[in-house]
From TrEMBL, chain A:
Belongs to the CDI family. It is found in: Cytoplasm; Endosome; Nucleus. Keywords: Cell cycle, Cytoplasm, Endosome, Nucleus, Phosphoprotein, Protein kinase inhibitor, Ubl conjugation. Residues 32-43 have a biased composition (Basic and acidic residues). InterPro entries: CDI_dom (IPR003175), CDI_dom_sf (IPR044898). GO terms for molecular function: cyclin-dependent protein serine/threonine kinase inhibitor activity; protein-folding chaperone binding. GO terms for cellular component: endosome; nucleus. It comes from Fundulus heteroclitus. This is Cyclin-dependent kinase inhibitor 1B. Important regulator of cell cycle progression. Inhibits the kinase activity of CDK2 bound to cyclin A, but has little inhibitory activity on CDK2 bound to SPDYA. Involved in G1 arrest. Potent inhibitor of cyclin E- and cyclin A-CDK2 complexes. Forms a complex with cyclin type D-CDK4 complexes and is involved in the assembly, stability, and modulation of CCND1-CDK4 complex activation. Acts either as an inhibitor or an activator of cyclin type D-CDK4 complexes depending on its phosphorylation state and/or stoichometry. Residues 18-49, 141-198 are annotated as: Disordered. Residues 49-98 form the Cyclin-dependent kinase inhibitor domain. The keyword Cell inner membrane does not apply. One of its GO terms (biological process) is negative regulation of cell population proliferation.
Automatic annotation (TrEMBL), chain B:
It holds the Pfam family Cyclin_N. It is found in: Cytoplasm; Nucleus. Residues 259-280 are annotated as: Disordered. This is Cyclin D1. The keyword Acetylation does not apply. Residues 259-269 have a biased composition (Polar residues). The lineage of its organism: Eukaryota, Metazoa, Chordata, Craniata, Vertebrata. Keywords: Cell cycle, Cell division, Cyclin, Cytoplasm, Nucleus, Phosphoprotein, Ubl conjugation. Residues 155-284 form the Cyclin C-terminal domain. GO terms for biological process: camera-type eye morphogenesis; cell division; neuron cellular homeostasis; regulation of neural retina development. Belongs to the cyclin family. Cyclin D subfamily.
Length: 198, 292
């Protein structure tokens, strides 16, 4: 038989109307939760759908609309086409490309994952993202598989030459680690005076 | 799923000690100023929502509290989730059928903000009887974040309780019981639509006064007598004593009506249910039973 966490009070204290009778359910000195979350399975009684069934397709449509809205707002705010990964022409802000080797490692390294980051491609999270950086769609032949890209990401080998964002798809490549073009070039916004030319 | 969730080798939850240095007046003044930025609009049912009525919020809140209690969430998770919910509903007309998804998402966010081991999307979806899937919860999360302008550092009544308790001259063991009761009142208030627009400091002060009253706490210098305490706390929150008194009375009548409802619902089956589910019987926090 399960007992509640140590700090819970007797419900009878309320029901009896005399709060002075309240007593703790057992002798824990702390009144704090000490039991870990993982031991609790959802009880069937608490698992319920409250307001009827959700129209999933309609929900997806609305989410897409919202996302489009959010993206447009962000684009206007930052003068940047996030979907196309390039600055907007005639934007309020000026963007300059920066070699990812010149920026702090923090921005370049893949999100921290549990051990064995590159064990395979079947690690897809709930957003549908892979553990590793996605390879940009490329018309170029000889694109190495995601596996190659992945191990490079992990080793932190993100030294790529600087690219002019206006020259998309015209960049010359000397080695296979430049495949994910759009992911390798970081853009830094600046307002007026360029602090650094690359 | 059952096998996945079962894990026997677990440590107890580790938490930092309460930092006494944070219980000073400067922090309290900052919180009093900050709380105004996180108040939902008081009349969003009329002005913003088309399908959602106060009764639905109550049903949703009761379910959310049940989930938080069952998952042994930290006390602040539920009030915080309700704040996110109200702030979202203040700005975005929402379909009735998506209200539960929103509630689950708010718990998801509040738990991530406050807990070392947060609730998972999968578990929350199970609680919706799988009426939504984790992917939808994550999309909803992004939407909620944007509508709240990514500002999740809401001040809740819970944040004030410790400050108020530190100002009372009472024994530490009494303080723990008082804290528990005050937190229970705060949770109860979060389920009730009449407190949506009340400043968190007011709800917290009202809850502390009501808890002191309910526990018949006394002190030698009469500082815990109802008028004295009300006057004192109303000064602390820079409010009018009459406002605080009416808030306290509102809390007490809410408790009373909740208890009456609970007794009507549970009366005949009470003994049987308590035998069946011991953990239900020892949770008076259990506004979920009280509120159904």
């Amino acid at each position: 038989m399960k007992t509640g966490p140590s700090w819970r009070l007797q419900r009878s204290a309320f029901l009896g109307g005399k709060m002075s009778d309240v007593r703790l359910s057992n002798g824990s000195p702390t009144l704090e939760r000490t039991e870990p979350r993982l031991s609790e399975h959802p009880k069937p009684s608490a698992c319920r759908s409250l307001f009827g069934s959700v129209d999933h397709e309609e929900l997806q449509r609305d989410f897409k609309g919202h996302m489009r809205e959010l993206l447009e707002t962000a684009s206007a705010k930052w003068s940047f086409d996030f979907a196309g990964d390039r600055p907007l022409p005639n934007g309020r802000l000026t963007w300059e490309p920066v070699d990812s080797a010149d920026i702090p490692d923090f921005y370049a390294r893949p999100p921290r994952r549990e051990k064995d980051v590159c064990s395979g491609n079947n690690n897809v999270d709930l957003n549908g993202n892979h553990n590793c950086v996605l390879v940009a769609p490329s018309e170029d032949a000889g694109t190495p598989g995601a596996q190659t890209e992945c191990s490079e990401q992990c080793a932190g080998l993100r030294k790529r030459p600087c690219h002019d964002p206006t020259a998309q798809n015209k960049r010359s490549r000397s080695s296979s680690d430049e495949v994910s073009l759009s992911h390798s070039v970081e853009h830094t916004p600046r307002k007026s005076s360029p602090r650094r030319q690359t | 799923m059952e096998e996945q969730l079962l894990c026997c080798e677990v440590d107890s939850i580790r938490r930092a000690y309460q930092d006494e240095n944070l219980l000073n007046d400067r922090v309290l003044q900052t919180m009093l100023k900050a709380e105004e930025n996180y108040l939902p609009s008081p009349n969003y049912f009329k002005c913003v929502q088309k399908e959602i009525i106060p009764k639905m919020r109550k049903i949703l809140a009761t379910w959310m509290l049940e989930v938080c209690e069952e998952q042994k969430c930290e006390e602040e998770v539920f009030p915080l989730a309700m704040n996110y919910l109200d702030r979202f509903l203040s700005v975005e007309a929402t379909r009735k059928t998506r209200l539960q998804l929103l509630g689950a998402t708010c718990m998801f966010l509040a738990s991530k903000m406050k807990e070392t081991v947060p609730l998972t999307a999968e578990k929350l979806c199970i609680y919706t009887d799988n009426s939504v899937i984790p992917g939808e919860l994550l999309q909803m999360e992004l939407l909620v974040l944007n509508k709240l302008k990514w500002d999740l550092a809401s001040v809740t009544p819970h944040d004030f309780i410790e400050h108020f308790l530190s100002k009372l001259k009472i024994h530490p063991s009494t303080k723990q019981i008082l804290r528990k009761h005050a937190q229970t009142f705060v949770a109860l208030c979060a389920t009730d639509v009449n407190f949506i627009a009340s400043p968190p400091s007011m709800v917290a002060a009202g809850s502390v006064v009501a808890a002191v009253q309910g526990l018949y706490l006394k002190s030698q210098d009469a500082s815990l007598s109802s008028p004295n305490l009300t006057n004192f706390l109303s000064q602390v929150i820079r409010s009018d004593p009459d406002c605080l008194r009416s808030c306290q009375e509102q809390i007490e009548s809410l408790l009373e009506s909740s208890l009456r409802q609970a007794q009507q619902h549970n009366g005949p089956t009470e003994t049987k249910r308590m035998d069946e589910e011991v953990d239900l019987s020892c949770t008076p926090t259990d506004v979920r039973d009280i509120n159904i």
